[in-house]
Write a structure and sequence with these properties.
Elements lengths: L1 H19 L17 H4 L4 H10 L1 H4 L14 H15 L10 H16 L6 H6 L7 H18 L1
Helix pairs in contact: 6-8
Length: 153
Amino acid sequence: MKKSILKKAAITAIVLLAVIQFFKTKENKSVQTSENAITQHYDVPENIQNILKISCYDCHSNNTNYPWYNKIQPVNWWLADHVNEGKRKLNFDEFNTYSTKKKLHKLDEVIETIRENEMPLKSYTLIHGDAKLSDSDKQEIETWVKKIKNEIQ
């Protein structure tokens, strides 16, 4: 009796996993740079742009580089939710749509989250080791953010 229930549960789980593979989310991919991107309105030196692309843009831009495992459900749903949440909090590709007050606040948050080692997320850097910010990366970003804040004010 127990084996029969376990067998039915296993078959149901396998069928369910197979069925959910057909329910994909829309990928966060953009063909061109947004006219509202921070790079279109403020000086973003190449070294800062490289750091942002490697450590931030997968979740905080309109263009995510997806890993191979994004093709598997429910991982695809989890990543889509994660990216959408990141973009809601800060989207470098829509930065110029923010009010002056919001821009300044978001830039303050950039400094705070990197100082507190909250960003990039540990779950992200476990898989993307190159996204970990060194102390010099953090200092470069902080210096750049302060410069941008002075331009905005």
